[in-house]
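Now for one record.
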Amino acid sequence: MMAVDLVETAGYEAIEAADAADAVRILERRPDIRLVFTDIDMPGGMDGLKLAAMIRDRWPPIELIVISGKRKLQSSDLPARGVFFSKPYKRDELTEAIQRMMA
């Protein structure tokens, strides 16, 4: 199941970004966004960890989920309140995290 499908199945609107720069543009236009779900490996000049750090700095209330199929991270590698999942992730665990973070 793709991330967008998982988010929508959990009952939330998913907004896709082409890359980190596009995600920032979307966040600048959409103050209603409460959670960002990003992969570390993204196209463009900024990876998902840098995006997560920028989001934490510019939009502190936004919750962060970071995923990767290539890297293993500790919570100390993430911005405050960021949550990491390795691919392949368990759909139920990720859905629970999304629901908890959106509550």
